[in-house]
Amino acid sequence: MSGNASPRLTVSALTVAFGGLTALKNVSFTVEADETVALIGPNGAGKTTVFNAVCSLVRPKSGSISINGRPAPDSTSALLEQGVSRTLQGLGLFSGLTVLENVLVPLTSLRQRTAAAQTAAAMLERLSLGSYAQAPVDSLPYAMRKRVALARALVTNPSLLLLDEPAGGLSREDISDLADLVRSLRTQGNAVLLVEHHVDFVMEVADRVVVLDFGEVVAIGTPDEVRSDPAVEAAYLGLEAA
């Protein structure tokens, strides 16, 4: 981990309510530099709400969120400047643009055009997409479009990367390649928070796992600790509690 440095992400006693429904209740966890933390739980457990709160898309009723030791920004436009990037379940790619043009989108306000193009091209090479730079993004198969979305999220060199269902819809081979990439991010000092239903993938790449149920943290620990928790086994891993 990162010694005395502030965590890349600190979520403290976070409570979010929508009308009379409490979506999150007193949720607390951290993500350190060079650490991958996974959020798991059934549909409706609050995983995406955590992401949306970090990205300032929903306002907490109480609690706090800090990024790199500073309060999370009040607007999504300030997230890039604070070093946060996110993928979306729906990919969010721009139809009609090329692969390179899609990856360039978050760089247009951060770098001069020539430097941005060089950075984007290097990221495409890193993710084995270099030969598709000028291809219309809509012409690529789904697994490759997911890789384009990941390249776009990584191209700003975020200090905190949020991955929303990155393994969804991928083949076993593609998931294995994705696991290798996520592990490489950790060795480069990146912090990753991911939401994922693919439990085997989570257990392979996560340093710690946060388990949510009905908006509350019911377990937090290493993959082995979470895997051996009888309540988690029964509720989330499809096993019978002893």
UniProtKB/TrEMBL annotation:
Keyword Translocase: no
Membrane as UniProt keyword: no
Pfam families linked to this entry: ABC_tran (PF00005), BCA_ABC_TP_C (PF12399)
Keywords carried by this UniProt record: ATP-binding, Nucleotide-binding, Transport
Domain ABC transporter: 9-239
Superkingdom in the source lineage: Bacteria
Secretion signal span: none
InterPro entries reported in the protein's UniProt record: AAA+_ATPase (IPR003593), ABC_AA/LPS_Transport (IPR051120), ABC_transporter-like_ATP-bd (IPR003439), BCA_ABC_TP_C (IPR032823), P-loop_NTPase (IPR027417)
UniProt cross-references to Gene3D superfamilies, sorted A to Z: P-loop containing nucleotide triphosphate hydrolases
Organism of derivation: Nesterenkonia salmonea
A molecular function (GO) term: ATP hydrolysis activity
Protein name (Swiss-Prot/TrEMBL): ATP-binding cassette domain-containing protein
A GO CC term attached to the entry: plasma membrane
